[in-house]
Amino acid sequence: MPEDVFAPWDDPEEKPLIRFQNVTKSFADSIVIDDVSLDIYEREFLALLGPSGCGKTTMMRMLAGFETPTSGRIELSGKNIVPLPANKRAVNMMFQSYALFPHLTVWDNIAFGLKRSKMPKDKIAARVEEMLKLTRLGKFAGRKPHQISGGQRQRVALARSLAKAPKLLLLDEPLGALDAKLRQETQFELVDIQETTGTTFVIVTHDQEEAMTVASRIAVMDEGKLIQVDTPDRIYESPNSVYVADFIGDVNIIEGRARKQGADLYGIDWADGQRLLAVTSERAFTEGQPCHLAIRPEKITISADKPVHADNAVQGKILDIAYLGNLSTYHVELPGGMIIKAQTANTRRMSPRSFTWEDAVWLSWTVTAGILLAE
Amino acid sequence: MMRRAVLIAVPYFWLMALFLVPFIIVFKVSLSDTALAIPPYVPTLEWRDFRTFLSQLDFENYIWLTQDDLYWKAYLSSLKIAFLSTLMTLAIGYPVAYAMACCPEKWRSTLMMLVILPFWTSFLIRVYAWMGILSNEGFLNQFLLWAGIISTPLTILNTNTAVYIGIVYTYLPFMILPIYATLDRMDASLLEAAEDLGCSRIGAFWLVTVPLSRNGIIAGCFLVFIPALGEFVIPSLLGGSRTLMIGKVLWEEFFNNRDWPVASAVAVVLLLILIIPIMLFQRNQQNQAEAGR
Ligand SMILES: Nc1ncnc2c1ncn2[C@@H]1O[C@H](COP(=O)(O)OP(=O)(O)OP(=O)(O)O)[C@@H](O)[C@H]1O
Ligand SMILES: [Mg+2]
């Protein structure tokens, strides 16, 4: 592995900045965080992804110091921070509801944390100006929060949490209210800030694309459990479960039974009277074990004639075509009634589509295109 | 169109009938001279000879107010009593409102009821009850004697202390309710944000909670200060002969001296003094309405 690749999680020598150790949090009667262990490294950009109510905000609030874990330890730079109150932690949080002070101007909101830190006045002013410039709020510095738009408020909240240049910055859906363009710019800005300041970021987002763009690692959660924590490409290409494969991006899931055919080659018996689907898998499966074959739509080739050298080929009928601008997704119905999605890139402008509804087509993919999952 | 005119006319009519007309009458009386007659002043309104009628009006009574030092002393003393009791009401009312706002949701309406409950009995009866509590043989002294804290009864009734107790007791709900309303509306995550940015709990209280309840504090203070300034019942029932309040002076001028013109002049000046805080209060309410949008 080359030296300059940022992958502290692969280095057993590396000390994590944050360490969750078997953390459990329950409210009254329900367990919200269920025995989570997670290491977050310095300079990392970790994205927490998961459905609404899975416990992302609760994780953040425990890091910030607003909730105490019911059991387990949370370490910051090797020290247990569970007993430390929020105002003593070198952690800042951008709240999902922004929590801007309504009686203070944008300027004073951003300066609030700095003023608490015995920084000289001129330094505070310089820092606030810097933040205003970064978030392009210069024009609104003198306004109160109720006099600016939702997106502007979000930027104020972001600027306020960034101002103190904390060791760890927690962003709870920081970009939800921004328009696509500003959102993208802010994403790059965040990555930039992260690279220049060396701050560690934990970001909650509902937008997978955002997670993919900014994160060094993605943690996928479900019902208070961490399902997979990995780099974006590994989350996408090698999900560890059907849940993760399905949660991130589009995927075809074909259920069947594994038949061992080679060292790590399997045939999937997925429908009566059909040829087995060939797939390689690093994970071992026993003969006849129920399994799921996950294939991304863009890995499936669609053609009019039967492909000659394909590892896997099935015939079907086009049911629907979704035009997405840069891509087209074909929904193809197989004889058994199963629907498979295949994606092609629209590389030419206005070229007539090669296929239309009800066309009989062949779908094909290689042995390495799919991934075999147990559950 | 018609409907709107009617809607606007209603409050104006209200203002005219219940405030402006009586005020003009009082103002006119204050410019008259006292007389042994019914009503006890001259001139009475004469439309036939309006010019002579006007010429008989003068500012003599107002000049009199500045000459006898009873009046300005009474005004000052009222201002002082109203101001101090407003501060005391705030000092008691704010913690109560704060505690109410911190209580679990299910208790709040009950607590609110308890604050309003005293209004269900007559104000006079409640003041008389305080006489029973504060007098030399009253419950308070009996209790303190019984508990061995004091050996001779304290004289509280008929002193300024009793007046302060009475005013603070009576107007406390007017302080609690507006403050509670602003605290109740406050977003709890603001305090978390303040803490997150390095504030201590106490710091967050002074930097966030207090400024955000400012409008409630101001509203509460005016709601206590304005009526307390002209208060008459409490000083005359609980206060002593040396308690000087302008409301009491006004009463004595009207009913003991039967000097309606001087009494009216006292009332007009009191109103002028009150106009400043009333206008400030209005402005605060307006700001609050704007910020609340
Ligand atoms: N103070 C609380 N008391 C009781 N239950 C709570 C409390 N806070 C959160 N919960 C519950 O914990 C679960 C996780 O909440 P959390 O806010 O962490 O979700 P989330 O992943 O951030 O969701 P979203 O994406 O909608 O923001 C939810 O089921 C929620 O109802
Ligand atoms: Mg959340």
TrEMBL record, chain A:
Residue ranges of every copy of the ABC transporter domain listed in the record: 18-248
InterPro entries: AAA+_ATPase, ABC_SmlMolc_Importer, ABC_transporter-like_ATP-bd, ABC_transporter-like_CS, Mo/tungstate-bd_C_term_dom, P-loop_NTPase, PotA-like, Transp-assoc_OB_typ2
One Pfam family recorded for the sequence: ABC_tran
Kinase listed as a keyword: no
Keyword Transport listed: yes
PROSITE patterns linked to this entry: ABC_TRANSPORTER_1, ABC_TRANSPORTER_2
SUPFAM superfamilies assigned: MOP-like, P-loop containing nucleoside triphosphate hydrolases
Chemical reaction(s) catalysed: ATP + H2O + polyamine-[polyamine-binding protein]Side 1 = ADP + phosphate + polyamineSide 2 + [polyamine-binding protein]Side 1
Keywords, comma-separated and alphabetical: ATP-binding, Cell inner membrane, Cell membrane, Membrane, Nucleotide-binding, Translocase, Transport
Superkingdom classification of source: Bacteria
Oligomer status and interactors: The complex is composed of two ATP-binding proteins (PotA), two transmembrane proteins (PotB and PotC) and a solute-binding protein (PotD).
Annotated function: Part of the ABC transporter complex PotABCD involved in spermidine/putrescine import. Responsible for energy coupling to the transport system.
Family per record: Belongs to the ABC transporter superfamily. Spermidine/putrescine importer (TC 3.A.1.11.1) family.
NCBIfam families according to UniProt: potA
UniProt protein name: Spermidine/putrescine import ATP-binding protein PotA
Gene of this entry: potA
